[in-house]
Every structure is written in C-alpha cells, then in structure tokens.
Amino acid sequence: MPSAVQTLDISPVGRVEGDLDVRVDIQDGVVVNAWTQAELFRGFEIILRDKDPQAGLVVTPRACGICGASHLTCAAWALDTAWGTTVPRNAILARNLGQIVESIQSLPRHHYGLFMIDYTHKNYSRSKYYEEAVKRWAPFTGTNYELGVTISGRPVEIYALLGGQWPHSSYMVPGGVMCAPTLTDVTRAWSILEHFRRNWLEPVWLGCSMERYEQIKSYDDFMAWLDERPEHANSDLGLYWRMSLDVGLDKYGRGHGRYVTWGYLPHEDKYNKPTIDGRNAAMRMKSGVYDGRTDTHKLMDQYQTREDTKHAWYDEAGGLHPFDRTTKATMKNTTDHDGKYSWSTAVRHAENGRLEAGPLARQMVNGGTHGESWQHHDPLILDMYKRMGGASVLLRHFARMHEGVKLYREAEHNLREFRLNDEWYIKPTEKDGRGWGATEAIRGALCHWIEVQGGKIKNYQMIAPTTWNVGPRSGDDIRGPIEEALIGTPIADASDPVEVGHVCRSYDSCLVCTVHAHDAKTGKELARFRTA
Amino acid sequence: MANLLWLQGGACSGNTMSFLNAEEPSACDLVTDFGINVLWHPSLGLELGENLKKMLNGLVSGQIPLDIFVFEGSVVNAPGGTGEWNRFAGRPMKDWVADLAKVAAFTVAVGDCATWGGIPATAPNPSESVGLQFLKRASGGFLGPAYKSKAGLPVINIPGCPAHPDWITQIVVAVATGRGGDLTLDEFGRPKTFFTSFTQTGCTRNMHFAYKVSATEFGQRKGCLFYDLGCRGPMTHSPCNRVLWNRQSSKTRAGMPCMGCTEPEFPFFDLAPGTVFKTQTVMGVPKDMPQGVDKTGYIKLTAAAKAASPAWAEEDIFVV
Fold first, then answer.
1. Partner B, chain A 91-150, Cβ-Cβ below 8 Å
2. Does domain A41-303+351-478 have CATH number 1.10.645.10?
3. Looking at CA atoms only, how far is residue A1 from chain B in angstroms?
4. Which of A87, B2, B20, B204 would suit a FRET pair with A237, their CA atoms being 20 to 30 Å apart?
C-alpha cells in the first residue's frame, strides 16, 4: 500500500522580484505533484497603456533590476521594428555589449550568492566534499563566495561606461544608443574584462585558460579535462561537478524536455533595418525550439506564442497571442490549486506546448544544425544531455556557467568591432505600428510586444523567462516547466526539503520563494522554509 | 553588532543589485568587518533555520531586537486596501511592514518605490502602491506623517531608481557604528549629505550648459542634455556626478539625460505622450527651470550665454 501523500507548501522559495510559493505533494519520499504560484502583481502592462511610445524604455528595465539591460534591449528593438528605424552598426554592438556584461555579471553573483550556498547545507555534511564546500562557499565568509560576489560588480562597470549606470539605464533608444564612447572607454572596458578573467574566470572557476576550456566539445572531452590536471578537478567548476554527482544532483530536476530560445545578439551588419520577420536570420546566437523526445530543432516564431489564463489571476480568455491580450487582473486573488493560483500566465508554443526557457534551453538549441551556417554552434551541452539521460539540476546550472567563456568572447568581439568615428544614432521618425523586441536575459527568453496608436501606447506586453518557467498549469492542465521538473525529486527530510530549492534555483527564477510542508492527511504543517 | 532585516514589497530587486555592486565597503565587508548581522534578505540566502515566520514574529514581539529595517519596493495596498496582491510568508506584506516598523530602531526606505511609490505608483497605480512615508510629494505614505522609528527619526529615505550602493552602505554603517546621530535629513527624509547638491554638480557638460550649447540628438560628442533632451540635472538633488556609478561614470556623462529619479515625481509627467527624453517648453522656454531660476532670469542668462559662447563650444569635445 503506498504511503500517504504529504503536501509541502513552500512560501516563499527565495529569489527576487516578487514572491514564489511552491506546493509539493510527497509520497514515499518523492515529489509526485507540484504547483508554482507567483505572488506579486504590479501591473506594468497597465501602467504603460496610453503613455509615451518610449515609456517602455524607462518602465520596463524597472520590471526587473537583475535583467534591466535585457528589458531595455527588448524595449528598444520593439520600437525599432514598430517605427521602422535604421540602427547603425556601432549601436548594435553597444547594445549587445550592454546585454552581455549584464549576463556575465550574473554568473558569479547567482552562482555564489544564490546557488552554491546550498552545497553548505547540513544535508550534505556526509559528502566527502562538504568541508571544502563550506570553506569556499559559505555565505559572506566563504573564500570564493566573497571573491565571487564582489567581482560580480566589475563587468557592469562596462555597462556604466555605455549607459552611465547599472542597473536601470535607458541608453538604448530607437535608432541607436545615447552614448558615443571614446578610446578611453574601450581601453577601460578591456582592462575590466581582463581583471575579471585573471582574477576569477580562469584561476577560480575554470582552473585553466579559456583557450583550453574552449577545446571541450563533448561529454568525453569534458570528463578528460576534469581528470587532466588537479587544477581542473579542484577548480570551482571541477568541485561543482564532482560534488553535484556525489550528492545526486544529476538524478532529478528533469522537466518537460522541450526548450525555447528567442536567439540574441543581432549581427552588427545584418539587423540595421530591423523587422519582426527578419530577426531570426540576423541573430549571432540562433533562435529555436528543441524537442528532446524527437531530438529535433526548429526556429522559434513569435507568432506561435500563446498565453493561457485558466489557472492565472486574469479575467480574460486563454490561448491568446500577446498582441491580443488586455491584462485584466482578477480583483480577488484567492489561491485555488484546482482553479486560479498564480499571477503568472501559462505560456506555451501553439504547436509544441509548454517549453523551458533559460541557459540550458539556449545550449540545447545551440547544438542544432538548423538556422544560418554562420550562426553560433556549440554541441557540448546537447551531447551531455544525451549522454547523461536528460536534464537535471546539475546540467541546468552547468549550462548557465558554461556560457561565461562564450559571452566573454562576444564582449571582446564588440570591443574590437566598434568604429569609434562612425555614427551611434540615427534619429527616427515616430509613427504608429506594431513592434516586437526580444533577447535572452541570462535566465532565458525575454520579449516585448508593443502597439503604438495615435502617438501613444495602445498595448504593451512582456513575457519574461520566469513567465515561461514558473507559469501554472495551462488551459489543457499541463504543468508548467518548474512544476514538471519538481516531479520525481527525492526528499530526504520532509521538514527541510532543500532538494525542492535546488530545482527551483536551477531555473534562476526571478521570484522569492518559500516552501510550506504539510501532511496531506492531517493538514498539519511539517515545515516552512525559503529556498534562497 | 546590529541586526538588519531587508524585505521587498512591490520591488524589482534593483536596489539589491545596486547594493551588491558596492566595493568600499562591499556587501561582505558589512558582515565581516562592520558586524552587521543580516537576519534575512530575499536574495542573499543566509540560512534561516526552520522558520522565517517564527523569526519575523520574534522581531515583532521584541524578542529579537531589530536595529535596522530596510524596505525595498512599494507598499502594495491592492486590491481595495487589502494588500493581497503582494503576499509574503502567509499574509499581506503591508501587514508585516506595519508590525516591523513599530519595533525597528531605524527604518530605511531604499529606492524610489519604498520612498515615494516609484514606477508602480505611476498612474493609474494599479497596485495601489505607496512609499513608506510619502506618496510622491505628499507626506504620509503607508506609515503616516507622524511616524518615527524607535531611535526617534522618521523613515530615512534613500531614493533613486536605483539608489547608489554607497548611499545605502554609508547609512547602514553610520547606524551600525553608532553615528546615527550625525544623520541630518531634508524635508523628504533624505540624508542631506547626499541630497543637497544637484545631479548637475560635477557634470562634465557644465560648460555646455553655461554657454547654452545643446546636444540636439543622442550620440553626439558635445553639448548639454538640458535644453532639448529633457535632462533634469539642474533641478534634481543627487550626488550622481560626485559619487560616480559603478566607479566609472554617470548617466549624464555617458550621454543619457537625468530623469530626476531621486525626486518624488519620478517618473515625471507620468510618462505622458511627448514627455520622454524631450524638454518640455512654453514659447521656447523650458517649463521646468534650473532650481531657483525664474523665467526672466533664465532668458537673460541664456541670452548672455549665447552672446558670450566661444567658437570651440560648438565643436566636438568628447572626441575619440
């Protein structure tokens, strides 16, 4: 006879930008069902209605202080496509550079500040790596925690050179950028990158040069690299990998096995006349949908985006494309796990259903041969996915950190390609129309839709990576990606289920998250804890 | 040792992100060198033991002393004053704020949302957001105009969208090291040491302002952003050009107009059509003058500036 189901309510499961509550049902020490619930509504889409067409450049970066450059990128490209602007080469490079340094910043900040502290959790005190983990990664006092959190502020100094400050600049505008950097700015940017590489990326994270790391193209290459030198095995990457295996983080957190990325970093010479339909063929990092069941890739098309509201606190029809949404909030947001239980809509692809967004999704798509021959291709993570039998907490977070070296190379590319005496901005003519701008924030697919009518915003809609991942069940009651990924999670101690936190945090959702544990039979609360 | 609790209401975490950019002292230094005991922060992930609610209740009951209560984000009152649109640890966040503000020695509002309501409070303010002790320029906010923390101060307002990390750390360190008595606040609860000078103070474009040479479009290598591009540097109180951002620059230095984000009205004009990145004028004269300058004075000043302007002022100055 199966044991009784225990229900675990997690409120909040720590992260930022609002609050995430998670409820899990536990049976025989394993999660058998899950619900993710976004607990904050600010109504940015409502605020933007009837405002200046450029209001999105000011408001949307402030939707998320962590991904502000990414929101700004979307807001600017959305207006560019609506107004039919011409964007000079330098401006594309300057926008991309801002996007990249924000993402590089987030690597050590999220890794040490939010993710690795769990490895110092007492649950893992029997791991042979525990003592070393505490020495390096304990909050505030761990040697590499302090180094990593502090050095994470450096990459965004480059953002300040372009936009004056990070977070929350609005230096990207339709027609280009506000800045006109000088040679000194470029020199400083180079030296900031070098400092980051010489003091953390190579010696602490990789334990080798970027060039050596870049030779890794397959799972076998990676395993050979790990054993090649003690510096590799003992680097923060090496220890992350070994300890994650030791505590079983390769065994759960799988998810739907279907992935989405909008692609990002438009090519400086291929998106100067931006249009919605011309975007896919202009991205350095290609867009795509990867289906793990059929092992097939295809390009992602924004017309396929749908938002379901059956389980979300909105009084509007489900299955709408964002251009058709009206954002009518439910006044009384009562939690009903069979009915409506989240401020997040359930986003899906009209053909492929629920999709996971994020660095893992980007890397799964990067492994495909679809798209343009000149676009970025990297087979490593897809090979690991196949060799390791699917996604896991281990692989999802590794995919995030794997992007560091690639983003660094992209930043170098931008600095090399600036033609400082050429133009940075071409003043556009304001007009009515529909636009769409997208990018990849570090935590995944982000995009904005805008409709300008009569010289003001008629409709503004955003779908964040967290909307994809943290959304509730869809109209056909399919679980959201994190809900699905929680299924099968082993819970060693129902009164302290750190494993739930690992899964949520591997998605880097931008919500603060707490877990409540309940015995389903008696209704008694077993535990409540936050996961970051 | 000072106990610090940091909570977020209607927030984007931008002030937390800004705070983590701090270097002297860094966020870690605050803990290791200045004895700040971070009881809880939504994203810094300190171990909390079993039960956040238990700790919050311990603070509310006075069992655990709360030396510094930092609040980021707006206080959400929707729907209909219930605060249910922003729940935290099982109840509306506003109820936690009300309880915690009563027991805090110092209450610090970080960023525009917590000080004045900020972006969420922009019309039509769907989340019914207010700041801790102000809504825009009106005194009151969530805690009321008479509120004083246990140390006898009103809410210490550190505005900005986001606030600069040095503004935050300096206040926290001052309080933790017993120098809270040195803090002097202006009529909006802002520490005077930061918010008496103007954003324009120290701006690299001051000579262009003086000679009325305008940056007429973005991406130019000269000119003041006040005359055409809507810069609010001359009438915004902040040290953005004295204490640089990310140790490198400021918005106006980089070519972005100041949007006045340390002032209660931000975002100005509620972002009405035609107001973003464009100077609002009447008959060619800016609607909003540099602080303390009247229309007649402005016309005389700019006429003289134009007449005296040297030829070089029209040439590029921030050249490659």
1. 91, 109, 113-114, 117, 121, 139-141, 145-146, 149-150
2. yes
3. 31
4. B20
pLDDT at residue A153, as a whole number: 95
92-111 in chain B: CB under 8 A from chain A: none
- Between residues 271 and 330 of chain A, which touch chain B (CB distance below 8 Å)? 329
Q: DSSP states of B15-38 as a string?
A: HHHHHHT--TT-HHHHHHTT-EEE
Number of domains within chain B: 2
Residues of B in contact with A510 (CB under 8 A): 13
Nearest to B12 among A63, A179, A180 (CB): A63
Residue B26's CATH number = 3.40.50.700
- Tens digit of pLDDT for each residue in B12-65? 889 999 999 998 888 888 888 888 998 888 877 554 434 677 889 999 999 999
The answer as to whether B319 is a domain residue is: no
**φ and ψ of A360, to 5 deg:** -60, -45
Supply the pTM of this predicted model: 0.96
Among the ranges given (A17-21, A502-506, B37-41, B237-241), the one the predictor scored with the smallest mean pLDDT: A17-21
Burial A165-177 (b: 16+ CB within 10 A, else e): bbbbbbbbbbbbb
- B201 and B182 together in one domain: no
For residue B318, being part of any structural domain is answered with no
**Which CATH number do you get for residue B223?**
4.10.480.10
Same domain, B134 and B218: no
Nearest Cβ partner for B45 among A41, A114, A188:
A114
Task: Clarify whether residues B220 and B275 are in a common domain.
Answer: yes
Question: What percent of chain B is helix, strand and coil (3-state, nearest 5)?
Answer: 30, 20, 55
**B256 touching A (Cβ < 8 Å):** yes
Of B50, B119, B246, the CB nearest to A529: B50
Cβ contact, residue pair A150, B26, below 8 Å: yes
Q: What is the pLDDT of residues B85-107, one digit of tens each?
A: 888 877 899 999 999 999 999 99
From the list B88, B255, B275, which residue is nearest A12 (CB)?
B88
- Phi, psi dihedral angles at A427 (to 5 degrees): -60, 120
Domain ranges of chain A: 1-37+495-532, 41-303+351-478
Do residue B161 and residue B12 come from a single domain? yes
- Predicted pLDDT of residue A513: 43
Tell me what percent of chain A is helix, strand and coil, each rounded to the nearest 5: 40, 20, 40
The interface residues of chain B toward chain A in range 63-92, judged by CB-CB distance below 8 A, are 74, 76, 78-80, 84-90
Task: Check whether residue B111 and residue B259 sit in a common domain.
Answer: no
Q: Is A320 exposed, middle or buried (0-12, 13-18, 19+ CB in 10 A)?
A: middle
What residues make up the domain containing B299?
197-313
User: Among all residues of chain B, which has the CA nearest to that of A142?
Assistant: B28
| Tokens linked to A113 | 């500040």
Residue finishing a domain among B142, B161, B194: B194
B170 with B54, same domain: the answer is: yes
Q: Is residue B52 within 8 Å of B100, Cβ to Cβ?
A: no
DSSP secondary structure of A195-241: HHIIIIIIIIIISS-HHHHTT--SHHHHHHHHHH-HHHHTSHHHHHH
R_g of chain A computed on alpha carbons = 22
Any idea of the CA torsion for B154, B156, B159, B164, to the nearest 10 degrees?
Answer: 180
ipTM confidence score: 0.96
**B45 occurs within a structural domain:** yes
Answer yes or no: do A42 and B8 touch at CB < 8 A: no
- Give the three-state DSSP class for B278: coil
Residues B230 and B139 in one domain: no
Give domain status of residue B46, yes or no. yes
pLDDT of residue B61: 97
Residues of B in contact with A529 (CB under 8 A): 48, 50-52
Q: Taking the alpha carbons of A497, A498, A504, A506 in that order, is the dihedral positive or negative? A: negative
User: Which residue out of A9, A62, A185 would a mutagenesis test of the B interface target, given it has the greatest number of B Cβ atoms within 10 Å?
Assistant: A62
